[in-house]
Structures are given as structure tokens and as C-alpha cells.
Amino acid sequence: MTADSIESSDYDAYAEAYALATTRRERPEVPGDPYGILPDLLELLGDVAGRAVLDAGCGDGYLSRVLARRGAQVTGMDLSPRLIANALARDPDIDYRVADLSQPQPADAARFDAVASYLVLNDVRDYLGFIATLAAVLRPGGRLVLAINNPYGAVIRRHVADYFDSGAKSPYRGLWEVGIKSYYYHRTLQEYLDAFLGCGLRLDRLIDLQAHSSAHEPATLLAAGGRFPRHMILAFTKPAIPAGASHG
Predict the structure, then answer these.
(1) Which of 24, 40, 70, 190 is the most core-located residue (most Cβ within 10 A)?
(2) pLDDT tens-digit map of 106-165
(3) Separation of alpha carbons 199 and 236, rounded Å
(4) Burial (CB count <10 Å: 0-12, 13-18, 19+), residue 241
């Protein structure tokens, strides 16, 4: 698939503003990352040294660089050619590709020992295609770990008024404030889980994450002092093929 055949990304026109945002995220004084996501995500991935790992929706390579420092053989894929160009400029030793992961990637079927994704799923219009592709490129016995915006938080944080309004589109307010005009696509947690489980994956963990105190947090529906998990991590395993079983 060529870049010309790929639907444009919301982030492509704002690649430079996005690069500034990820640079701030990688400041040494930030413990892990400003959202407090990385420690749990990396723990659930386990030891990635020497393993083939896909960073699904890699952007300009923030998570890819983290994984490479841990010894992974990283492939980063993203819809945005400009983000991929920026990723290559920052670390040309990582294998980056322009690819629409909501479309099948048959050349990579069962190729990866692990798949990771950092705050991408909520940005994807065709979430069913994206999930199906991630399941297909994961080898049997492999682990898929995703960080997402908490679907229930879409109501609390005023992205949507109706939790069941699947497909509702709203701006990411914090990103818009720094010049990145990207959008959030709402799905219910049931829809996400049904899609992953429908692809034959097994849910291992669901972690609700409390927002880091330095993270941008707009007004919510919560009373003063109320707390709600801003992000969520989902960890799945693709069941191994039993010895002697048919491969189809």
C-alpha cells in the first residue's frame, strides 16, 4: 500500500506541533510520562528485549523509542507520512512505515511477538478494522497492550453527552489548545471489548489510571474533589495454537 492510497490523518497537518508536544512529554523531569501510562503499559508487555514489537499508531515514535531502549526490535506504523518522517529523523535505526492499520496487512500476519499502542484507538474512525489488524499481525501466544482514553470518561470530561452515542466525534481540547486539531471518536467499552474478543483475543487485565497531577485536565461533571480515571490500559493475549492442532 502506498502513502497516496492511505486516508489522511488528523495529525498529518499538525506534525510539527505534535513533535513539540512529544518533546515536552520526553522531558527527563517527567516521571515516565505526564499521563502516568508507561509504567503499567511496559510492565504488562513484559520483557521485550530481542522481540519483534509493533508500535501501532506510532506517531513520531514516542513509544517506539521507549521500546527500542528496552531492546525491542521495533516496527512503528502510522497513517501520517509527516509523523513517520519526523520519527525517522529522530531515530533512523527504528523500522518505521506509513500504513493504515484499519486495513489488513497480510504481509505481517502473525509476525509480531507483541503489539503496543499509546492513546491511538480513540483516534481511529474504523476501530473494528484497526482491532482486527492488530489481532492478525500478533503471533499466537503474543501480547497486545493498549492505552486508551477511558470510554466512560467521555461523559465525565464532556466529550459526549450520551455515552451510547457510538461514533460521536469531538475535539481533543488540550491538543487543540497547542495547535493540534485532532478528534476523539467515542465508542463504548462494550463495543471495544466485543471487537477484541471477537477477534479471538483473551482479556488479561484492565487497569484504570488516575491522571498525573501535571496533566491537562479540563472541567468535568465531577464535584470538587471527585476523581475519575482519565485513561485505561487493556492487555490481551492471543491464544497459542495447541500442539497438533490444525493451522486451518
Answers:
(1) 40
(2) 999 999 999 999 999 998 999 999 999 999 999 999 999 999 999 998 888 778 889 999
(3) 11
(4) middle
Phi, psi of 144 (to 5 degrees): -115, 125
How far apart (Å, rounded) are the C-alpha atoms in residues 183 and 5?
21
User: Can you read off the three cell numbers belonging to residue 243?
Assistant: 500442539
Q: Are 123 and 100 in contact (CB under 8 A)?
A: no
Q: In the chain, what are the domain boundaries?
A: 3-237
The structure's pTM equals 0.85
Cell, residue 125? 474512525
From residue 212, give the alpha-carbon distance in Å to each of 36, 105, 209: 6, 36, 9
